[in-house]
Structure formats: C-alpha cells, structure tokens
Amino acid sequence: MAPTRRDLIKTGAALAAAAAASHALAQASGGSAGDKFYEKGEVRIRYLDTGGPGFPLLIIPGGGLNSTISGLINSHPFNAIDEFKNEFRCITADLRNAYAGESTGPLEADRPWDAFTDDHIGLMDHLGLDKFMVLGFCIGGPFIWNLLERAPDRVVAAVSAQPSGYRPEQPTLFYDNNMTGWGAEIVKRRPEITTQAVDRFLTRMYKTNPDFVFTVTRDFVRQCQTPVLVLPDDIPSHPYAVAMEVVMLAPKSEVSIYPWKEPPERIPIAVRQIRSFLRAHRPT
Asked: Is residue 246 in a domain?
C-alpha cells in the first residue's frame, strides 16, 4: 500500500472513531446537535427540537422534579423521541432546576405547578407553535392537566403515561421523597437555593391542597373535551386508582392495556396504541 493511501485510511479511521465516541458521549448525556436554550427573564430552559414538518409533539420526561432529556432517552420504558421523531416534530426539555439537567430559574414557592407550565407554554411560544399535542410521563401527568386548563385551545390531544397522583394512604410521599432526594441535591449544587426555600416550594406543591392529580379538580376533568389517552401504572408515586379515575371522568378518554410495561413484550403494543391515538387526533 502506498504511504499516502495508508495515511488517508488511518486518518479516516481515526475521524470515524472520534465521531463515534462523540455520538456515544452525546447519547449518554442526552445531548444532541438539536439541543438549544430558551430564555425568559431569570429562566433558562434547555430543550431539544427534532425539527421536521410533522405536527408538534411536546414530550414531558418523567423523573419527578429531576426530569431531563437524558432521562427520557435513557431510562424510560421506551425512547419516545426515537419512536415518534419520524412522524412528529418532537420537542422536549430539561425541567427547570432538575439537578441532572441544564434548565435553571427561580423557585416560585407561591405557584410551583404554574411556573413549570409557564416554561412549557413559553417554549412553544418561542418556537412559534400555536397548536400541539403532549405526551407526558410520571410528573408529566399533572403537567398535562395544568396545560389543558391553562391552554385548552392549544393542546389538541394528550397522552399520560404512568401518571403521578395523590395516594391518601401516603399523603406526604412526594414531599418526603423530594426533600431527601431532589431538594437535598439542588441545595448542594446551587448555593443560592436554601433548604427553607425548598421546603416552602414543596409544601405548596404537594401539601397545601393534596388531592387527585394535584393540578386540577375532578370537575375540570369531567368537563374537559380534549382527547386523552392514559397508560396506568401502580407504584406508590403512580397510583392506579387515580389513573383509572381520570379515565372514568374524562369524557374523551381512552386507556391502554394494563399492565403495559410487564412483560416487556407488551411495550411495543402500548407504543402502537399511542401512535394510533396521535395519528387519529392530529389535525389535517
């Protein structure tokens, strides 16, 4: 082999290896060339927009107050971005002040749920998207209902997978878990945030008016005309009873098979139902 040709091949191999390593690192961190930031006042939200001509689909990761793009890609029952990016314009973001993410902003102790919804609506405004659909995991359930109350004319359909909800036999579950988990970590990593501020924030979020899906009343769900698909779960933070009560109350609700995550062979069936639901309610 001529030296020049050999050198070119070696250089090409090195570049390919470097590209592969960079891609692997981006996947591990949830990073992507599509990651961007939306800023409004003191709030800075890291988001991922797959672009494309498909109808907008806002995907809200699970993981409680530490929900991130990385978690959506690496630790959910299925990778919603991969599943739907070829048919929909998928948009997702790190939750404000998730310690494993890059979105930051003040703790609004007087309106915690609405502050997060401000970020979701603000992001869609930033992208110039009036109408959109929503797929939310875990804490995405309460966020979806808050979006449906705050922006009923903009959300055309919603999918709530393994939604969070209030469990009366464990009334302080979310407060306790977040004080020892998310709260302790955010105080450690963000010196300007105190334990007292976290306590006020979580008290308002989970203890002041604890009930049902945290963000809206049963009367609102009864009157909501937005199509909703629910994929129930049944662990302490994802009560089956609340998920099914939503299904029974919402006039345009649908429900998946249950359980849909176990055995794992059932997950593709659930994904197929989500896809059919989104296609059915996608505006033409």
From this structure: yes
